[in-house]
Amino acid sequence: MSTEESPVEHADRWILNLRGMSVTKISVDFRLVLALDADWEAAWQVPVSLSHGTVHANPSVLLNPESQDVAAALALFGAKVLSAVAFKSGTLRLVFDTGHHLTCSSDPSFEAWQVTVPTGWRFASLPGGGLAVWSGSGASESYPRHTMRQAQDVRPLSTS
In this predicted model, what pLDDT tens digit does every residue of 72-99 receive, in sequence order? Predict the structure, then answer.
């Protein structure tokens, strides 16, 4: 686990440096929130799919934070993150050492999920699809863009 590394951008996704971090707290209000080591936080405001093992062998369970129907998420307490990917389409996928997978697509009306990092990085799905990224320096970017295939053409939306 390295909390000093910045997330890594690829053409269609960001790899978040959550590998090896444990789920230290699970809370629910209108969101499902997983607190991780080093003050990282992942939160979902819309239904999120929780699966275990292969999709063919084990169908997923839909966790619904708005109605507090998230009991199945308790299995994640103490689990370590193996992989965390924020796709520029607005989907977030977390894979845990327990064999569980959390997957959440974007929502047509709301920011479906967000991941916040103590160093200032923040990732959030955009309503209707896409991804907003705020770097540790405060700059933000949004995806998709007309120039998404050419990442070097993406410019910060603001610097505040």
Answer: 999 999 999 999 999 999 999 999 999 9
CB distance 34 to 25 below 8 Å: yes
SS3 at position 4: coil
Is pLDDT of 29 > 80?
yes
Neighbours of 133 (CB within 10 A): 21
Tokens of 58: 């084990």
pTM listed for this prediction: 0.82
The CA–CA distances, whole Å, from 23 to 64, 71, 81, 140 equal 19, 15, 8, 27
Q: CA 40, CA 7: separation in Å to the nearest integer?
A: 12
Beta bridge pairs of residue 93 = 85, 103
Q: Which positions ≥6 away from 4 have C-beta within 8 Å?
A: none
